[in-house]
Amino acid sequence: MTWHPSVDAISAYAINRLPSSQAWSIEAHVAGCDPCRRGAAYLPGPARLEAIWEATLEQVDAPRRSVVEKALGAVGVPEHLARLLAATPSLTVPWLAAVTVVLGLGLAMAWSSAGDPAPSARSGLFPFLLLAPLVPLAGVAVAFGPVVDPAYEVAVASPFHGFRLLLIRTVAVVATSTTVALALALLLPNAGVMAAAWILPSLALASAALAASTFVSPLVAAGGCALVWLVGVTVIEVGPRTLVAFGRTGQLLFAVALATAVILVVLRRESFEIGRRR
Amino acid sequence: MDPSDTELLAAIAGGDRHALRILYERHAGWLVLRLSRRCGDPDVVNEAVQDTFVAVWRRAASFRSEGEPAAWLWGIALRRLLDRMRRRSRWEPVAEWIQPGVVVSAEDQVMIGVEHGAAGAALDRLSPELKAVVQAMVLDRLTARETASLLGIPAGTVKTRMMRARRLLREDMAT
Predict the structure, then answer these.
(1) CA nearest neighbour of A23 among A7, A12, A34
(2) Residue B57: its chain A contacts at CB < 8 A?
(3) What local confidence, expressed as pLDDT, does residue A114 receive?
(4) Is A76 left (phi over 0), alpha (psi -120 to 50) or beta?
(5) What is the count of structural domains for chain B?
(6) Does B139 contact A43 at a Cβ distance shorter than 8 Å?
(7) Nearest-CA distance from A30 to chain B in Å?
(8) What ipTM was predicted for this assembly?
(9) Where are the alpha helices (DSSP H) in B37-100?
């Protein structure tokens, strides 16, 4: 090709001041002409080109997005939020596997005593009902705090308000662990209503731990709640395990505890702002 | 002797970051200009160019050495722009087709005139909306649906505008 568009023409093209026919000619030519392309390379300005390059490098250096992250992105979750959720320890596959194993043990114990005649047969559900509420609790505890959270730095730098971030992650953690527990609970033998008896306690425990974490560190808060739960329920159910703790009165108490904890969390939401948290 | 684009792509496939930088310096500027004529929002253009080179970094190995690297890059860039436009919740207008104050040398006019002749003149007389559709469908070979998401108008409108543009061009060149 002997003809090349002048620098003027390419500059006019760059600021969109050419009639379409000429612009298209220039495009057709430059697309296939190395020297012209290199001549046009500086036209957008060095500042803009450097900014794009930096952003490109950042993504080139970033770790590949995990499967979880891609799935979240595909359903419209914004990129930074997807990364944060995917980096939450209690939302990873190993964590969910561990949860499944623990609850699976409870399930196995329930099945091993399933052949017994009533009413002691129902007491076989006890291990599962005792363990299941601890799952979201542990998930919430592990999801927050610099000790165990690899995304802590990301969280500190995230554009979210601390409280909003907390809500998003808590809901995600509680929802996933509850789903796993629910799937296993459906496999409980002869459970009837009792297959759902752990749901209110687990919500109450998780929110109580959140409320407590406005006073003490998240791990202490979760540990304390777990201890109160384990000791309390074991004491009530000592002797013949009639599952009275999971009966009507028990559920009512859990509902009250849940409501109280939620109110407390909302009232004390200020203490979740990053930097002020202990 | 400078490495060719094809050699650069081979080096990038092997994880050579410096090669990516050279390729970027050769092509990014032109891609920014060319995409800017298809999308009025500079931020979206920047993101599309960024996505393009990230894609090049990850998929350089899939480039076939008998192909033309510049055309391959442009193909990626245009798709990335479409992706970015689709993800936008609200539409940004396409770059305005302002044309006053054209500063092109007489020599350029002649050369361009030779290339297009009557067709070029007829094209310039089309309305901006019609031109945008012709550019997307004829020049960029996009489908009606892709054109629709690029311009932020329904696919049906794209088709009627394309038909109108064809008719106008035919009539204009016949007279």
Answers:
(1) A12
(2) 56, 60
(3) 66
(4) left
(5) 2
(6) no
(7) 9
(8) 0.79
(9) 42-59, 69-87
Strand, coil or helix: what is B172? helix
Q: Which residues of A fall below an 8 Å CB-CB distance to B?
A: 3, 5-6, 8-9, 11-14, 16-27, 30-32, 34, 37-38, 40-44, 48-49, 51-53, 55-56, 59-60
Domain carrying residue B129: 106-174
Q: Give the pLDDT confidence of A174-192 residue by residue, as tens digits.
A: 888 888 888 888 888 777 7
Q: Is residue B96 part of a domain?
A: no
Q: How far is the C-alpha of A68 from the C-alpha of B113, rounded, in Å?
A: 55
| Count, residues in chain B | 175
Q: What is the arithmetic mean of pLDDT over B80-94?
A: 70
Is the CB of B131 less than 8 angstroms away from the CB of A17?
Answer: no
User: CA A234 to CA A126: how far, in whole Å?
Assistant: 10
Measured over the CA atoms of residue B70, residue B76, residue B78 and residue B81, the dihedral's sign is: negative
Contact (CB<8Å) B104/A9: yes
Closest-approach residue (CA) in chain A for B119:
A21
Given an 8 Å threshold on Cβ–Cβ distance, is B101 in contact with A9?
no
Q: Are A4 and B81 in contact (CB under 8 A)?
A: no
Q: Bigger pLDDT: A187 or B156?
A: B156
Instruction: Select the more confidently predicted residue: A74 or B53.
Output: B53
Please name the residue of chain B whose CA is at the shortest distance from the CA of residue A38: B26
Closest partner residue to A21 (CB to CB) among B29, B57, B120 is B120
Query: Where exactly are the structural domains of chain A?
Result: 7-61, 70-272
Average pLDDT of every residue of chain A: 78
Boundary-marking domain end, from B87, B122, B138: B87
Residue of B nearest to A4 (CA): B108
Q: Is residue B141 part of a domain?
A: yes
Q: Which chain A residue's Cα is nearest to B68? A: A32
C-alpha to C-alpha distance for A41 and B164, rounded to whole angstroms: 36
Q: List phi, psi (to 5°) of A118.
A: -65, 155
Q: What local confidence, expressed as pLDDT, does residue B96 receive?
A: 46
Last residue of a domain, one of B57, B87, B117: B87
> Is the Cβ pair A17, B98 closer than 8 Å?
yes
Tens digit of each residue's pLDDT (9 = 90 or more) over A47-87:
999 999 999 998 887 766 666 677 777 777 777 777 777 76
